[in-house]
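Customer escalation, tier 2.

The customer says the design service returned an amino acid string that "doesn't look like it belongs to this structure." They asked us to rerun it and document both sides in this ticket. The original C-alpha cells are below, unchanged.
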C-alpha cells in the first residue's frame, strides 16, 4: 500500500512538473498576447494579479469594477498569496510560481483522494493530457479537492462533515452547488428526508458563514461575481459562443441556458430513479456537472479539472477507458484551438480560423455528451416494463 501511495505521489508530481514546463515560455518571456496564446501558456494567475490590483495588495472585493470575479475563498487565496511575492525580481512570475506550487500540492492531494474513491482507475487523472495542459490556468483545483472530499465523505455517510466541505467548495467555485441535486435524490430514494434537510442546512450555514462578512463589508464587490455571470453573453467555450461564431444567434440567452439546464437536470432525475439500486454520489456526480457546463454560458478550458476526477469515479471498470481517452482527445483538441483562435484575434500571423474554433468547441461538447451517455447506458438497464414498474412504485412511495 505504501508503494502504491508513493507511486501516486510520484505520478502526480511528474504531471504537475510537466504542466509547469508547458507554461515556461510565458514565465521566461512574460504573459503578453499573442505569444502567450501561440505557446498555449496563458494563465489567469499573473493576468489577474495585475488587472485586479493584487500587485498592490488591494482587498479583492473593495472595487465595484475591479473586484475579483470569484467567490470569497478563491478571492482570499488570490489576495493572501500576493503578500508572499516580495519586492524583488519579476513580481508576476513570482506570483505565478507561488500559486503554482500550492496548486501542485493540491493536485497531488486530489490524486491521492481519487485513489481512495477509485483505486483501480485513479492514475487516469495525472495521465489525462487535457488536465496536465490546464492545471495552472486558474485556481479551480481549490474547489476540486474540497468537492471530491465532500463526495467521499457523503458516500461514507459522514454527512455533517461532507455538508461542511460542500459549503466550503461552493464558497470557492460555485459549480459544486449542482451536487445538491444528486444528494437530494439519493436521500429521497433512501427515504431520509430529515437527513437531507440537515445536510442542506449545514451546507447553507457554512456558505453563509464564509460569505456574510463580505456581504456586509463590501457588498458591491462581493456581488460582482453574480452580476458578471448574469450579464455576460455567450462566452468562450460554450455551445452558445460556438453557435454565435457560426452566425447562429440566440436571443434571451440567460433564459435559454437556464431552461437547457433544467431540462438536463430533469432527465438526470429520471436517470437516478431509473437505476435499480440506489447509486453512490461518486457514481453520478459527473453527469450533473457535465450537464451544468454544457448549459453554461461559458465553458473555460480548465473546467476539464472539474470533470475529469468525477468522470473517473463514474467509470464502471477498465472497459470505459477507451471512451475516456476519446473524450480527453476532444478536450485536448479544444485546448489547442482556443489558444490559437485567440492568437488570431490578437494579431498572430498563423492561427486557426473562426470556423475551426467553433468546430473544436462543438466537438468537445459532443464528446462530453457521448462519453456521459455511454457511462449512463452501462449504469442503467435497458428501458422496459421493469423500469415503468419501478418508477410507479417510487411515485406511490413518495406521494
Amino acid at each position: 500500500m505504501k508503494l502504491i501511495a508513493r507511486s501516486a505521489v510520484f505520478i502526480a508530481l511528474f504531471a504537475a512538473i510537466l504542466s509547469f514546463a508547458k507554461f515556461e515560455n510565458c514565465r521566461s518571456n512574460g504573459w503578453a498576447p499573442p505569444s502567450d496564446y501561440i505557446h498555449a501558456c496563458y494563465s489567469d494567475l499573473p493576468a489577474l494579479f495585475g488587472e485586479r490590483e493584487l500587485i498592490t495588495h488591494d482587498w479583492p472585493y473593495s472595487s465595484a469594477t475591479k473586484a475579483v470575479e470569484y467567490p470569497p475563498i478563491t478571492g482570499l487565496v488570490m489576495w493572501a498569496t500576493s503578500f508572499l511575492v516580495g519586492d524583488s525580481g519579476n513580481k508576476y512570475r513570482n506570483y505565478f510560481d507561488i500559486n503554482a506550487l500550492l496548486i501542485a500540492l493540491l493536485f497531488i492531494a486530489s490524486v491521492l483522494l481519487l485513489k481512495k474513491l477509485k483505486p483501480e482507475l485513479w492514475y487516469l487523472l495525472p495521465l489525462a493530457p487535457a488536465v496536465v495542459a490546464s492545471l495552472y490556468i486558474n485556481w479551480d483545483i481549490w474547489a476540486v479537492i474540497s468537492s471530491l472530499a465532500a463526495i467521499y465523505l457523503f458516500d461514507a455517510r459522514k454527512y455533517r462533515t461532507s455538508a461542511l466541505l460542500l459549503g466550503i467548495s461552493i464558497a470557492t467555485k460555485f459549480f459544486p452547488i449542482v451536487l445538491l441535486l444528486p444528494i437530494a435524490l439519493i436521500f429521497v430514494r433512501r427515504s431520509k428526508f430529515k437527513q437531507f434537510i440537515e445536510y442542506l442546512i449545514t451546507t447553507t450555514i457554512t456558505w453563509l458563514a464564509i460569505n456574510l462578512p463580505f456581504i456586509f463589508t463590501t457588498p458591491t464587490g462581493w456581488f460582482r461575481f453574480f452580476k458578471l455571470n448574469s450579464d455576460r453573453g455567450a462566452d468562450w467555450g460554450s455551445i452558445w459562443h460556438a453557435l454565435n461564431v457560426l452566425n447562429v444567434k440566440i436571443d434571451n440567452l440567460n433564459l435559454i441556458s437556464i431552461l437547457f439546464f433544467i431540462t438536463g437536470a430533469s432527465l438526470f432525475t429520471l436517470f437516478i430513479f431509473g437505476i435499480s439500486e440506489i447509486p453512490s454520489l461518486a457514481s453520478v456526480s459527473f453527469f450533473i456537472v457535465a450537464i451544468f457546463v454544457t448549459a453554461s454560458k461559458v465553458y473555460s478550458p480548465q473546467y476539464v479539472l472539474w470533470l475529469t476526477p468525477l468522470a473517473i469515479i463514474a467509470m464502471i471498470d477498465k472497459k470505459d477507458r477507451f471512451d475516456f481517452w476519446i473524450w480527453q482527445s476532444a478536450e485536448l483538441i479544444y485546448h489547442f484551438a482556443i489558444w490559437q483562435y485567440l492568437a488570431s484575434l490578437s494579431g498572430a500571423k498563423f492561427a486557426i480560423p473562426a470556423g475551426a474554433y467553433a468546430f473544436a468547441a462543438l466537438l468537445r461538447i459532443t464528446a462530453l455528451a457521448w462519453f456521459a451517455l455511454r457511462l449512463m447506458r452501462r449504469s442503467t438497464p435497458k428501458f422496459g416494463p421493469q423500469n415503468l414498474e419501478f418508477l410507479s412504485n417510487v411515485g406511490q412511495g413518495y406521494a
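Tier 2 assessment: The sequence is consistent with the input. The first helix runs from residue 2 to 22. Residues 103 and 159 are 27 Å apart (CA to CA). Sent an explanation to the customer and offered a walkthrough call.
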